[in-house]
Amino acid sequence: MSTTVETSSPLLEGLNPQQLEAVLYRGPALLIVAGAGSGKTSVLTRRIAGLLESREAWPSQILAITFTNKAASEMRDRVTRLVGRAAEGMWISTFHSACVRILRREAEQFGYSKNFTIYDSGDSRALIKRILKDLEADVLGFTVSTASAKISKLKNELTDVETYARQANFQDPNEVMFVEIFRRYSRALSSANAFDFDDLIAQTVYLFRAFPHVAALYQKRFRHILVDEYQDTNHAQYALIRELTKEPAELEPGLLAATEAASLTVVGDSDQSIYAFRGADIRNIVEFERDFAGAKVVLLEQNYRSTQNILTAANSVISNNFDRKDKKLWTADGDGEKIVGYTGYSGHDEAQFVADEIATLHEKGMAYHDIAVFYRTNSQTRALEEILIRSAVPYKIVGGTKFYERAEIKDAMAYLIAVANPADTLAVRRILNTPKRGIGPATETLLATYAEKQEITFRDSLRHAAELGLGPKVTAAITALSDLLDEATAVAARLPTAPGDGVPEVLSLLIAQSGYLDALRASRDPQDEARAENVEELVAVTKEFQRNNPEGALVDFLTEVSLVAAVDDLDDSSGTVSLMTLHTAKGLEFEAVFLTGVEEDLLPHRMSAGEPGGPAEERRLFYVGITRARKRLFLSLAMTRAQYGDVSVAMPSRYLQEIPAELIDWRQSPGMATSRGGTQPRALNARRDGYGGAYSVPNAPPKPKTEWANRVTNQVRDNGDLMLQAGDRIRHTDFGDGRVSGVTGEGPKRIAEVQFDTAGRKRLLIKVAPIEKIG
DNA sequence: ATCGCTCGGGTTTTT
DNA sequence: CCCGAGCGAT
After folding, report:
1. What is the Cα A420 distance to its own chain's centre?
2. Quick one: average pLDDT of A17-38?
């Protein structure tokens, strides 16, 4: 064994002994327990590159599964950098994308057609909503969210309706109703030639189990399967991996010797398991060694990302979870700076702290894209956004209300789906009266009933509008829509080869001829202008798609859109701060991280308190957040938090006490902020002088809104084109008086740098800052 | 059929 | 606070 030869390979350069072992080990099963920041992507990509370089595997024999499309393309890029074009032909994708690829190929085997639609959770909910209404299930206490959660959970456990019905307790009216809901939902999906997210995995497993010769195809093809983020796999995903790593059945006796099972490499860290709510089963990783006999386990503990202070904080937090294998991250790179803590009086005050610190970091040379702000719930973005806008900090929300969830985009997509998959009744119904064509619910029901009686699809019932005895206007409207869909179908049928007939052309035809775009443009609702722009943006997206996939057909575009994850549109080269939930942050890293809202009922979230394992999972979420930071970590919270219109008192998170006190430099600690008359926060200095505040007035009537007299308010104004120049004195609602030291930027983006008398130096977006010029 | 109003309910994380 | 459902007016 010549280790010298091996270690001299550029593929193995700079690896520590454990990493080296993880790259070089060969065998049926390998578990890499990779702590946060331990270089697992590097190990994974070099392992793949090694297999290719040594000719142990062809690219087409490798299947690598990642959690997001972004991670997939990153991995592909990195492998390409190591081995060049040999990287082409590998399957590197998410579970969902890989399954869609398989299902489209094999759909005809089991009663679907390859142009099936993928329903996102919004679509599923809409369908379930309709079913609940038809069944009047609300009287039994069913809601869309309870029903869809239960169905999703069952699918993730590979339990289909019939299996479930077999063991259901039919004495219980609730159970009877649920079976009916589940049954109707499943039927609606299959008659619409559609799969929901959970189906994509589950149906692939069913397919493999029902058709061994299909399974054998993939079992033989994939010789090396690698799965990232294994701690977040659910049962269905686990089952899929099991199917793929079985020995292929011998189907043609005597022709070929049986191929042995594919080799499996999984990478994960049970301390970063944060998707139990979605069915992720931590046992998949914990019991890996038992599941795959003879599995090798490699532990990566050395961290190459964060400072020791950050790692020590992370270690001590996570050590409070019992039932875990002890694992301690360490770095050889030194302690680094202390963690900075801040307690605001309100969410806005906290946001102001974030904005100020970002401005300071940026001044010292840190790029905006190296900074991220995390939060537990999406609703926390409101205050952050308001303050960041006012402070002229460029930011981008990663995820949140996504582009593809907007109503106008769903409308436009429904037009495309109606063309690609006419069986998809939900899509056809959605566009039936969008834009308004005078086709109301009565007409819709008539069409649906007709379709049922004639045993044709809803789409085809539109062709028979004339036979329904409707008014001439309505009949003409239905026929026009039907003809338009036919025309678009004809264009789409010429895809992908015909030049000038691409997805953009199909979409443009639909939104123009249907009058959808014109209706938005003609509307007097000012928001419709933005909606029209969004639809045009979608056309731009299709153009981009066609440029990248000249052969791409309509279904390919629809698939791509269905499977984008929140994090996928994170642009590393953008000059903006990234805002995202803690869940979205998994797998990412930043120079500086702001972890906001570290409060009881938020982190841990109050909804998790009841769930078994809830608080432990929330702790892992906190741990994930901490370990995203390379150099600087900021933890912040607020004493009061606005929710649903009113304000409630917030308490510091229990997790804060789990960090050794000496690691945190509290700019304002929870203790300081609660002791009245204690150290005053910067944002509060401005107008405190000679003014005791609400507390010092005996028997004062309760004035909750003014309890913190100088709290940062959430008011935003429009100053129009207020002219300011260096030297001007201004007054700010929150920060008091100050002097303008400079103005930069153009038009609505003009920014004033202001030296406040008491609140320090700040950058303000002139257009929206609550300021006025004073003598 | 459509518009605009009021009322009430729900509030975690997401491929 | 934000939404969708339901209802009455046009």
Report:
1. 26
2. 90
A228 is known as an active-site residue: yes
Q: pLDDT tens digits, residue range A266-292?
A: 999 989 999 888 888 888 888 888 888
Please give the share of chain A, as a percent, with pLDDT higher than 70.
88
Q: Could you list the beta-strand ranges (E) of A489-608.
A: 577-581, 590-595
Residue A18, CB, strand B, below 7 Å: no
Q: Which parts of A391-449 are beta strand (E)?
A: 395-397
**Token pair for A192:** 């619409």
Distance CA A288, CA A656 (A): 33
C-alpha distances in angstroms, A766 versus A684, A740, A743, A751? 22, 11, 9, 6
Estimate the crossing angle of helix A235-244 against helix A212-221, to 10 degrees.
80
Q: What is d(CA A383, CA A386) in angstroms, rounded to the nearest whole number?
A: 5
Strand B within 7 A of A58 CB = no
Chain A 102-131 contacts with nucleic strand C (CB below 7 A) = 129
- Model confidence pLDDT, tens digit, residues A292-344: 888 899 999 899 999 999 999 999 999 998 878 778 888 888 898 999 999 88
Distance from CA(A181) to C1'(C9), angstroms, rounded: 37
Q: Please give the Cα distance from A315 to A330 (Å, whole number).
A: 9
Name residue A93's beta-bridge partners: A65
Buried b (16+ CB within 10 A) or exposed e, A630-667: bbbbbbbbbbbbbeeeebeebebbbbbeebeeebbebb
